[in-house]
């Protein structure tokens, strides 16, 4: 088909109104409509998989007329990396929508909620499948607006406060991205990343340096790397569980994806040979290690069920940053992208399971929980799957990707022995992540029962969790498909 | 071929309709039941006819082969033409005339529906609005500094009638403050103009430009420039000359604030653009760019910080108008085609965004919601008005898919192009501040519980929502598909290098 990607993007965009109108009548139907759209989108994307795997340049591009004066064309493309991210995003949106049927049913204004969720999916998919920086920025901010309103409108405690923090931090990051994009446009006269990359090679490296820094700082805020992570714990823990799953699963992943796609693949080659190039990569390593330790240590002492998971997201973005800093060798970058995919499903599952526990118990302090394994067998199983995956235990998903990152790191040490100590530290951090995962499981599910009258999660919540749990196991046992896809992308 | 009549017709038609409006509205008032419908029909007729004259000018300009991008037309031909008023037709002035007519129409129709303090506006109010639209279009079409001065001062002074309308002590005070500032400003300008005339022997834009380019002794020019720049800065409310604006816009009825911010404010930026860029380029004639860059940074910072501390919602939006001056100045100081494109886009996007916000705030104000605390929880009670206000807020904050983003993107990119990245950095940081206080407003509107007493009073009016949503939809459309307007601006960019 000629317009596959356009359809993929426009389908949820146009469906937003329909979801809203259906949601007025029956919220359940709206959720099913979202699930249906996700399945259609996944099917559409899969029709492109052969092109990516077997095509000559391993990518698929569509371009449409948009704002020619500003060199902003409506260019959509997929390659192996975008494809993987887009697929995983759609799976998470699908499960979030199904999970919401039960999870949100007592809440008011569900029509708006589902409409915002649909709009959010437009932004999320758009970020991954565009190669035009203007369209990229549109989608980048389109992730922000619906999330703001979902957190504010349906969150816990003082939701608008958390939402405010989230918006201001990530918007402040976004304006730096905008500066970078503006500078790229000024320097190269083009907004397409592939065109820009070639022109940037011949640009004054001093200028490229600032563009790179501005962009990376902006993306790092969305990624919640330490020290610009402050918005994450509040936003992730106060948001409703399906939104937390999306935030932790794909929105911060989008930050990492953007660093890879725009900072590293587009801008970085222009200065990779200079001294600043290696300083930049080493900087990423340092911040990665700090994030991993900071997140893991706080997760180890936190008592709020969702804040533990939120801090673990910071830790995992640390792994991702560490992996990205090993650019441009093939294994660690493959591992990093695979980790984004694996982390998305695992963390999504983790947040949904925690949401199920919270929903059934109506408390959030893990010290008041205990012995839920017998009461909530399905939730306990999915939580264990998620927690062990997050801790990097085989055969669950995250093990494979962390393994690849470390293999890459060891190879890089041979060339650049700067990475020796960071790699050792990262290995220690994986032990910490096992510690907080086990602590979580033992507090919540093991020990003596403190709550007698607890039932397991309702059926749709179970369904959503089981879908993700299956993915966590399947990706852990058989990551080949995604690895094949990701390795088609040339990094040099 | 464009005749002098084609150019002056929009101004003449607006002025004559302004006079006709008084008896027509009076007559309509006698038919109680049909009054609103008759009024609406009358103004629709007025704007169709005036719109036709503007369209005629635009079509004639664009149908001609663009041998001469700038048409200079004088009222009196022949040897005494030098004393005559000059008109100028180029892509910029046509674009401005079009947006003034369209936005003016929406703002005027809003004031038909907006009922402030249980009283409808008198016929004179509408007449003044029509005259102002005529004058501001005249400003856009002016071809020499004196004609520009006359039309512009007529606009600025005429605006005081709209501010004064309620005749409360506060509005009298604010209007007096405004008028004093305007009078000082016009004195400055006329002094500067007389020096320019002495130096160059003409006031025609291009003649002045050529004469200044070869001027040997620039001391007098510097004095003249300081006076003119200060004068026009006062009228555009550039910090530190901004003090009149918050008072005036807060004391004025909301329909006036909407009208003034969408037309007169944008008119004042247009004047700055015309005088600074079109007459004083290249900046080597006078090194004015750095001075205005500093003023622009100051305006962005001060305007946004004042808004951050403000708790009266209408005044908050008045401060945003000041901040907008700063953003416009960023593009003006860049002196690049991209900057001009940004300015022209900003005139439309910023104009309708401010107009939209004042219109929406006006509806809340008419129900007695004035401060941030009053706005607690109104979001759920008045969903449509609140939605419009949110759209305006996010457009101000420069969030994509809304018109404000494209405007800000162009403006900041032009600053980067002109090697003034520091100004772009200040600009984006202040727009984060802008996002902060606008989100605080949204937080009040949605995140808090309404107080029970206020809740009983709430009833969302329907009619004013029509002009409000015309603007809201325009903001979204311009945000998603800016090409529609950028194509209109494109000829300006192509003409810029050929400027005489």
Nearest-angstrom radius of gyration of chain A?
21 Å
Form type of chain B = globular
Biggest chain contact: A-B, 35 and 37 residues
**In which range does the helix fraction of chain A lie?**
over 70%
Estimate the helix proportion of chain B, in percent.
Answer: over 70%
Envelope shape of chain A? globular
As a percent range, the share of strand residues of chain A is: under 5%
Low-confidence stretches of chain A: none
What kind of assembly state do the chains in view correspond to?
heterodimer
Output the radius of gyration of chain B. 22 Å
Number of helical runs of chain B?
Answer: 20
Which segments of chain B are poorly predicted (pLDDT under 50) over 5 or more consecutive residues?
none
Q: Give the averaged pLDDT of chain B, no decimals.
A: 88
Averaged pLDDT of chain A: 92
- Please count the beta strands of chain A (DSSP E, at least 2 residues each): 2
State the strand order across the main sheet of chain B: 1-2
């Amino acid at each position: 088909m000629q317009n596959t990607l356009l359809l993929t993007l426009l389908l949820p965009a146009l469906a937003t109104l329909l979801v809203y109108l259906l949601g007025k009548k029956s919220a359940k139907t709206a959720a099913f409509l979202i699930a249906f759209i996700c399945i259609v989108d996944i099917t559409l994307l899969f029709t492109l998989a052969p092109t990516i795997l077997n095509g000559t340049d391993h990518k698929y591009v569509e371009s449409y007329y948009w704002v020619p004066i500003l060199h902003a064309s409506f260019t959509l493309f997929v390659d192996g990396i975008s494809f993987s991210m887009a697929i995983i995003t759609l799976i998470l949106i699908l499960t979030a929508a199904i999970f919401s049927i039960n999870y949100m049913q007592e809440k008011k204004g569900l029509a708006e909620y589902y409409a915002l969720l649909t709009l959010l999916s437009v932004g999320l998919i758009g970020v991954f499948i565009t190669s035009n920086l203007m369209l990229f920025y549109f989608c980048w901010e389109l992730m922000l607006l619906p999330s703001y309103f979902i957190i504010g409108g349906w969150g816990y405690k003082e939701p608008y406060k958390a939402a405010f923090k989230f918006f201001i931090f990530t918007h402040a990051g976004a304006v730096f991205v905008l500066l970078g994009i503006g500078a790229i446009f000024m320097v190269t006269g083009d907004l397409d990343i592939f065109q820009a990359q070639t022109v940037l090679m011949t640009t004054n490296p001093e200028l490229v340096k600032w563009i790179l820094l501005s962009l990376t700082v902006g993306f790092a805020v969305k990624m919640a790397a330490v020290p610009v992570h402050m918005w994450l714990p509040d936003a992730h823990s106060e948001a409703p569980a399906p939104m937390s799953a999306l935030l932790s699963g794909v929105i911060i992943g989008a930050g990492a994806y953007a660093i890879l796609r725009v900072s590293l693949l587009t801008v970085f080659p222009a200065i990779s040979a200079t001294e600043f190039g290696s300083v930049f990569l080493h900087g990423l390593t340092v911040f990665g290690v700090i994030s991993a330790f900071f997140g893991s240590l706080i997760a180890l002492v936190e008592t709020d069920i969702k804040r533990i998971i939120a801090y673990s997201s910071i830790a995992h973005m640390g792994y991702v940053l560490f992996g990205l800093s090993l650019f441009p060798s093939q294994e660690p970058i493959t591992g990093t992208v695979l980790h984004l995919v694996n982390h998305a499903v695992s963390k999504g599952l983790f947040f949904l399971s925690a949401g199920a526990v919270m929903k059934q118990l109506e408390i959030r302090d893990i010290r008041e929980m205990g012995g839920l394994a017998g009461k909530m067998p399905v939730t306990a199983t999915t939580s264990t799957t998620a927690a062990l995956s997050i801790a990097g235990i085989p055969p669950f998903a995250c093990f494979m990707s962390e393994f690849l990152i470390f293999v890459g790191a060891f190879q890089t040490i041979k060339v650049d022995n700067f990475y020796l100590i960071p790699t050792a530290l990262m290995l220690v951090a994986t032990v910490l992540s096992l510690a907080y995962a086990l602590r979580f499981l033992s507090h919540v599910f093991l020990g003596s029962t403190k709550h007698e009258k607890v039932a397991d999660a309702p059926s749709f919540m179970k369904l959503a969790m089981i879908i993700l749990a299956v993915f966590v196991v399947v990706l852990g046992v058989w990551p080949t498909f995604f690895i094949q896809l990701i390795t088609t992308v040339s990094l040099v | 071929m464009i005749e002098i009549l084609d150019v002056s017709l929009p101004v003449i038609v607006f002025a004559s309709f302004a006079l006709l409006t008084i008896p027509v509205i009076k007559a309509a008032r006698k038919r109680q039941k049909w009054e609103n419908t008759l009024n609406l029909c009358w103004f629709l007729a007025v704007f169709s006819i005036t719109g036709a004259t503007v369209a005629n000018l635009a079509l004639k300009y664009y149908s001609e082969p663009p041998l001469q991008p700038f048409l200079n037309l004088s009222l009196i031909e022949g040897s005494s033409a030098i004393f005559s008023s000059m008109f100028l037709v180029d892509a910029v002035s046509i674009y401005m005339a079009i947006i003034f007519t369209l936005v003016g129409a929406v703002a005027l129709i809003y004031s038909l529906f907006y009922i402030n303090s249980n009283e409808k506006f008198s016929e004179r109010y509408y007449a003044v609005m029509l005259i102002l639209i005529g004058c501001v279009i005249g400003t856009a079409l002016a071809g020499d500094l004196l004609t520009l001065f006359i039309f512009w001062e007529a606009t600025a002074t005429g605006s005081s009638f709209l501010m004064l309308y309620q005749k409360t002590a506060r509005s009298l005070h604010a209007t007096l403050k405004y008028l004093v500032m305007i009078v000082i400003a016009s004195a400055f300008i006329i002094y500067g103009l007389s020096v320019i005339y002495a130096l160059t022997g003409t006031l025609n834009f291009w003649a002045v430009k050529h004469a200044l380019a070869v001027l040997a002794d620039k001391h007098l020019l510097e004095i003249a420039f300081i006076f003119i720049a200060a004068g026009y800065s006062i009228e555009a409310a550039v910090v530190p000359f901004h003090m009149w604006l918050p008072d005036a816009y807060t004391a004025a009825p909301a329909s006036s604030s909407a009208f003034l911010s969408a037309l007169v404010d944008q008119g004042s930026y247009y004047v700055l653009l015309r005088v600074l860029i079109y007459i004083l380029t290249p900046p080597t004639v006078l090194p004015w760019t750095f001075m205005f860059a500093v003023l622009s940074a100051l305006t962005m910072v001060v305007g946004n910080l004042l808004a951050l501390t403000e708790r009266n919602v209408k005044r908050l939006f008045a401060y945003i108008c000041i901040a907008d001056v700063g953003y416009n100045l960023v593009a003006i100081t860049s002196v690049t085609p991209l900057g001009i494109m940004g300015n022209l886009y900003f005139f439309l996007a910023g104009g309708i965004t401010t107009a939209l916000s004042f219109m929406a705030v006006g509806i809340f104000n008419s129900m007695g919601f004035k401060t941030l605390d009053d706005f607690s929880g109104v979001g759920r009670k008045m969903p449509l008005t609140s939605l419009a206000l949110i759209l305006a807020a996010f457009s101000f904050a420069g969030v994509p898919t809304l018109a404000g983003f494209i405007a800000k993107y162009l403006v900041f990119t032009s600053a980067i192009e002109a090697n003034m990245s520091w100004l772009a950095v200040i600009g984006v940081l202040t727009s984060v501040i802008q996002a902060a206080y606008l989100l605080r407003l949204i937080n009040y509107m949605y995140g808090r519980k309404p107080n029970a007493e206020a809740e009983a009073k709430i009833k969302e009016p329907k009619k004013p929502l029509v002009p409000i949503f015309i603007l809201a939809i325009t903001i979204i459309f311009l945000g998603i598909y800016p090409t529609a307007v950028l194509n209109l601006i494109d000829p300006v960019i192509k003409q810029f290098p050929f400027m005489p």
